[in-house]
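Below is how a single chain appears once it has passed through the pipeline. First comes the sequence as given, then the structure the pipeline wrote out for it. We keep one example in the README because the format questions we get most often are answered faster by looking than by reading.
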Amino acid sequence: MPGDRIIGDLLRSQPTERTSRAYPSKGLASYALVVAFTALLIQPLPAAQFDTLPRPNAFKAIAQTVVVNTAVNRIDAWGRNRYWARVGTRVWARNIRLGWAWDEDAFATNVFAHPYHGGVYFNAGRANGLDFFESVPVTIVATWTWEYFGETERPSLNDFLMSTLGGVALGEMFHRIGTSIRDNEAGGTKRTMRELAAMPFDPMGGLNRLFRGQWKGFGRNPAEHDPKAYVLRVGAGARFAKGLVNDSVARMGAVVVDLLYGDQFAGTYRTPFDVFSIRLMLSSQGGLNALRASGRLYGLDLNDSTARIRHQLAVNQRYDYVKNPAQSVGGQSVEVGINSRWRLGTRGYGIRTSFFADGIILGAIDAPGAGVGLRTYDFGPGAGVRWEVAADKHGARFFLLYGRVEYIHTVSGAAADHVVNLSGLELAIPIAKRLGIAAQTYIFDRESRYPDRARDRREYPEGRLLLVWTKAASKP
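Resulting structure:
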């Protein structure tokens, strides 16, 4: 996947790369291809006024993914001298003849970097006026093209699934985050800072806007700019963990970011991912500890929207990445279940519950003796359940109790069945208008069962004490 090994390097979890020889001289045809397709990106518009959404153009969306794939392949081949980027017609013919395999890339590369780059493909569609469903084929075509023509290694089935499924999930959520950050009605330095802040989430959208003159032009904001109901909570403080760390308590810095975009009970279902949630966990030791996200694909109200007690059937798409000393686990899944809310009084307080069953399309989990070659973790499908009980005020949760149990069956790696438990308790106490203190405790544990060896059980209890800043809005 383009650029994934660069991100893997940054996350310090990439396997050692094989020795490579110098790449042959640069080809003028490749240069011409990059320049020709790049020209398709550049369509400057007058800076004074522009339409909120460009006209749908699938050809330009796919052409931009070709630019990304070609440019990154050439940078890796010529600039970084990577053996796996030395592609040509013989490699392409061999890849088509041999077909799919399972690769040996690092956990962070396969489970985080691939979905992120799949999101870049997806947002090439969204940046060129395509809707959610129209952008899915763009992601599939771009991922397939890279797997067969972008690397010397055989096309990777796990890369294809992670990039397409994860790319759709992260891509749509990041598209909406980027759109909510940008403001077509703002100007000056504030406008530029907003455009820059949105780039890490939606680079294709940002580049298209730059080339079209929309970083300075004025226009109406699209509907995704204002989700009406949202909660953004950012916390920083200390992380305490015990287990697999010399049996002692380890203290380190921690950052937790929570975003609840939309509210399933604030209105009827409109489009996929009109409601989603993201949690990001970072620490001073280990970097990215977790990125968990869930977006609503479909919702159906089971009773009247004015009822004091509300129930809604929901189908969600999930993305998960968890990495700590006890386990590395993640994957792509779809879940079906019921969200409920009990309204308490007239001051916005309520109790929310969720119960969902899920199917894991492709999961990844590390285990003793697992993996293939340099890879130290297994791939496989699975299933599980998730439940939550929360107390909130206007959608902002101040108490949360949750649990999740997943089963993963290995299809690539050591023969094993894995049972994973992720449970937690969280409490947020306000101390000022937007400031508060949060205490969070979690248990990450799992058991791996093998037909030919002893069971492996790991446990990693952890806690966080954070100073949190909260910004929230609810539908009027």
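The chain has two domains: 4-223, 227-473.

See the next section for the split statistics.
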